[in-house]
Amino acid sequence: MPVIKMFENHPKDKITIIPNITLILAHGAGAPADSVFMTHLGNALAGAGVKTMWFEFPYMERTRIDGRKRPPDRQPALLSHFRQVIRAVSRENGGKIIVGGKSMGGRMASLLAAEPELVSRLGGCVCFGYPFHRPGKPDRWRVEHFDRFHCPVLIIQGARDPFGKRKEVDDCPMVISSVCRIHWLEGGDHDFRPLVRQPETQDQLIESAAKTAAAFLADLG
Does the structure show a pLDDT above 70 at 49? Predict the structure, then answer.
């Protein structure tokens, strides 16, 4: 059974929970689910009223046990584990299940949002810093499934993210023709760090991303 926990950093009586929505948030390739970025994002989502659950992929669970850094499991294993998490969360929660994640975790979530077998289970998908391509390789896009989304998809992306800058993404035909929405964080990089000259801080861009996601999910709910 996968280990699933909830981000809950705010007193429940001070926030309005978005009804009928549970977001399952997956981590990126190199950092655990309780990294500084993921913790801030998860808590910001919780503070915006999004019931947010987190888990770790098997390779990261093993790293947590023995401290040895590992590369991510292969895509089929990642997706299989994510499906197990969805089934477990579905059993415990009513309403719509939303999948999402940071970088690689968001890509896995988007692949599930394109699986016809999950049409009845998933109500939406939110990706934070989507890895459209590897840095420096804008000719090898990871968007082959974008024309198969069966639920609303939101991507929140730093405008200067090396995994997909605004100009590159805006010019990609497969992204343009897809049904996903993209919200750009001006000046943000892959971890939503802003330019030095910007008045906003990384924390503020993460908070902005959480509020944007919450508004998107409130519409779904």
Answer: yes
| Residue 142: both structure tokens together | 């990871």
Q: Are the C-beta atoms of residues 128 and 41 closer than 8 Å to each other?
A: yes
Which CA distances in Å does 97 have to 48, 92, 119, 127, 201?
Answer: 17, 11, 11, 14, 31
Write the pLDDT tens digit of every residue in 120-161: 999 999 999 999 999 999 889 999 999 999 999 999 999 999
- Is the pLDDT confidence value at 55 over 60? yes
CA distances in angstroms from 120 to 55, 97, 98, 220, listed in the order given? 22, 10, 12, 15
pTM of this structure: 0.95
pLDDT reading at 23 higher than 60: yes
* Residue ranges making up the domain that contains 140: 4-10+17-220
Q: Give residue for tokens 């010019």.
A: 171
The domain spanning residue 210 has which CATH number?
Answer: 3.40.50.1820
CB atoms within 10 A of CB 146: 22
CA-CA distance, 103 to 101, in Å (whole number)?
7
For residue 76, give both structure tokens.
């089929």
The number of domains in the chain is 1
Are the C-beta atoms of 10 and 46 separated by less than 8 Å? Answer: yes
